[in-house]
Amino acid sequence: MSRVVLGSEATVELIRSMRAIGHLPTPSYVADLAQTVGDMWPDLAQGAHGRFEFEVFSPPLFIGFSLSDTDFEKIRSDEPLVDQRRRRKAMQAVFSMLDHDADMPTIADKGRINVRRATPREINAEGLDFWNDNVTEIEAGHLVLHELKPKLRNYVLDPTEQVGYRIAFNRITPFAQGDIPVPNLANKKVMVVNFHLLTIDGEPVAVSENTTARTYYLDAKGRADPDDHAQMFQRTLSRAFSGKHVSRALDKADKIKNADLLTRNKPFDANDYPLFFDDVIRFEVLGEKSARCKASLPRVPADSRMGPSR
Fold it and tell me: N- to C-terminal Cα distance for the chain?
């Protein structure tokens, strides 16, 4: 019985396509991708033109393939060790082309591979689908050999600049009570946004898009109003215990009566802050540096660390 991997010529074209958009693949990345394509072989069906047309999502890339039978390299499952070594050396020769110019004319490009960068929202949508598929399997009573674990990520967002500062969960209440000043955000409206970072087997796959945000107005020292927080907190609890949604009005009268509370507690719509949310995905899911996501709140000057003086 034989299995397959992506053939050498198609692999070279894959490398070139990634290089062409500024994505420099490592040999191990390409080897894994070639094997992934081979693993898909049993489920692939030829299209009307006798080619195998399919797409692979490999964050942060979408890679489209248009392959013929000859673009796959067959490998026997009982391949002798010496043949394995020969094949690996041949593949190493292919990977050595990573160090050469992308226009190297050794092998002609045949339009088999099309690579494009996925947008952050596409990456997140794919990750959410993967997460939800696993959850559905678990809910159906099926065995899922993955560890699904959500991790809380909290940000203090400057909505005007669309820049967010990560804040630990145990610092949110002191911040809301005015015990943690942020002079850089003085006299600004800010939002505390809570995301769930969804991880599978320890690897981040997506950020929850349906979440909540709480609005605070900081004073000239960058402190939240503790009295306002206490009042709003009690009203939020009372609303929750009475069975009402804490961020959505039941009717027009409720909307008018609790306008300030519903303005403070509101659903977070990622479409309202696209620059920030795209960078949240880059920062949290892809592990990239981000211009709009900071690892922590701005540092407080030494003379502001003496405690709250109001």
Answer: 78
Surface-to-core class of residue 280, CB atoms within 10 Å of its CB (0-12 exposed, 13-18 middle, 19+ buried) = buried
Question: What are the angstrom distances between the C-alpha of 172 and each of 73, 179, 186, 190, 215?
Answer: 56, 10, 17, 13, 12
Backbone angles phi, psi at 238, to 5 degrees: -60, -40
Q: Which of 294, 275, 286, 272 is nearest to 123 (CA)?
A: 286
Place of tokens 């674990």: 149
Q: Which amino acid is at 197?
A: L
Q: In this structure, how many other beta carbons lie within 10 angstroms of the beta carbon of residue 39?
A: 12
Rounded CA separation 189/225 (Å): 12
Single pTM value for the model: 0.76
CB-based burial of residue 104 (10 Å sphere; 0-12 exposed, 13-18 middle, 19+ buried)? exposed
How does pLDDT run along the chain (310 residues), one tens digit per residue? 458 888 888 888 898 889 889 888 888 788 888 888 988 988 899 887 889 999 999 888 999 999 998 899 888 777 788 877 777 777 767 666 655 555 555 555 778 999 999 999 999 999 999 999 999 999 999 998 899 999 999 999 999 999 999 999 999 999 999 999 999 999 999 999 999 999 999 999 999 988 889 999 999 999 999 998 888 888 888 888 888 878 778 888 878 888 887 778 888 989 999 999 999 999 999 999 999 999 999 876 655 554 554 4
Across 249-308, where does the E strand assignment appear?
265-268, 293-294
In this structure, what token pair is assigned to residue 52? 């195998």
Tokens (6 digits) for 187: 């006299």
Provide the CB-side half-sphere exposure for 214 (13 A, CA).
15
